[in-house]
Amino acid sequence: MRSLIEVRNLSFKYSESGPFILDSISTNIQKGSITAVAGLSGCGKSTFAFCLCGAIPKSLPGILEGDILVDGSDIKGIPLSSLARKVGIVFQDVDNQLFLPTVEAEIAFAPENQNLHYDEIEEIVEGVIKTLDIEHLRDRNPSRLSGGEKHLAAIASVLSLNPDIIILDEVFSELDQEKKKLMADTIQMLKKQGKTIIMIDHDIENLMIADTILLMKDGSIEDRIEVDEDYELLCSRLRDFFLYRKE
Amino acid sequence: MNFDPRTKLIMVFLISSAAVFIREITSLFFLLLMTMFLCRYFSISLWSSIRKLRRLWSFFFVLAFIQSMFTTGGEVLVRAGDFRILTTAGLYSGVSIILRMAIIIYSALIIANTPALDIIYGLIAMKLPYEIAFMVLLAMKFLPLFREEFVDSITAVQLAGVDIYRIPVKKKLSIYAYILTPSVIKALSRARYISLSMECRGFRAHPERTSYIRLRMGKGDYLGIFAAATAIFMIISFNF
Amino acid sequence: MSFYAVDSVTFSYTGRNDLFKAISFSLEENECIGIVGANGSGKTTLAKLMMGILKPHNGDIYLEGGNTQDISLSEIGSKVGYVFQNPDKQLFCPTVQEQMEFSSKYGGANCADRADYYLELFDLAKLKSSSTLELSRGEKQRLALASVMSRNVRFVIMDEPTTGLDILRKQQLENCLLSLREEGKGYMLISHESGFMSRHTDRVMGLKPEGVEYLR
Question: Is C123 left (phi over 0), alpha (psi -120 to 50) or beta?
Answer without folding.
Answer: left
